[in-house]
Hints:
By secondary structure, this protein is α/β, with parallel strands linked by helices.
Amino acid sequence: xxxxxxxxxxxxxxxxxxxxxxxxxxxxxxxxxxxxxxxxxxxxxxxxxxxxxxxxxxxxxxxxxxxxxxxxxxxxxxxxxxxxxxxxxxxxxxxxxxxxxxxxxxxxxxxxxxxxxxxxxxxxxxxxxxxxxxxxxxxxxxxxxxxxxxxxxxxxxxxxxxxxxxxxxxxxxxxxxxxxxxxxxxxxxxxxxxxxxxxxxxxxxxxxxxxxxxxxxxxxxxxxxxxxxxxxxxxxxxxxxxxxxxxxxxxxxxxxxxxxxxxxxxxxxxxxxxxxxxxxxxxxxxxxxxxxxxxxxxxxxxxxxxxxxxxxxxxxxxxxxxxxxxxxxxxxxxxxxxxxxxxxxxxxxxxxxxxxxxxxxxxxxxxxxxxxxxxxxxxxxxxxxxxxxxxxxx
Length: 394
């Protein structure tokens, strides 16, 4: 049972562990960008768009030392630093963002923003516009009347943020998972602005396998009677469905080696043999439930579904094939997949590598080694320390 207890503690601290190296130690100020009306890639208008953002380092006089960090599916703009001295959870990439680190804040001005339809609607440090926002035309939450948005839309809103700051070039765009999709989209949508691209645990398109998995992620929400077609604001939200959806995400983003090493076949409670009663659980079951319940408390079910749709729709450059989608990309690329990733598997990054290499685009490919699956793109990112430094210096 001691292994089970230690495993629960270790699993709960995985993201925080990524920030234990010397890192950005100044307090971070969360800011809000108000765009006003925004017209989506699909031609629909969203009024009163607002997103949160934060920055680390100092913008230079020529405004050309900017690195944009784009976040993952369940993430926020909090890539580095702390909001308060007693903040228990530092930014997720504290291992590589900070003075003297690969993304050196003595040298670069690093910007990160919350996406449209950010999952973490009820996190007080997140600002986002989505289905849970008030539709000015009705005075009620949008629900499923909110326009479909895409990875391209996330990028266009980030571009508007940079325009408001009079930033016209990016030394690099870097992101993990859904952030990697955004980084690639940046390079094909605004190639004149992007000097380098660093997709971490990413892909150039959502293939049929990924589309199918994303469908399974969203199904528990829509099967929850409280979802009510997305019309649950003011009533009981579909917490059970959202929690199960987040359990699927939590397990899918990890690896069997991690699960067995952390939990094995331990029971959730001493003396409560899972063979003796259906209510008795294995330790891994209890951890999934507890971790997902905590995440569900700050999340919104409709926002989850909109993120699923945005990821399913992704093809770089919103073109028909990967080759067509990547045709406008000209910047050097550093691909950092995770060898044990079971979500955005390394073959997806290799497809990007091979497609770009066929066009003689400078592309490097380095696999992160670990046993945490997709999460290795966050937790062991410092394995790429030297490669990141060299790539940002080229």
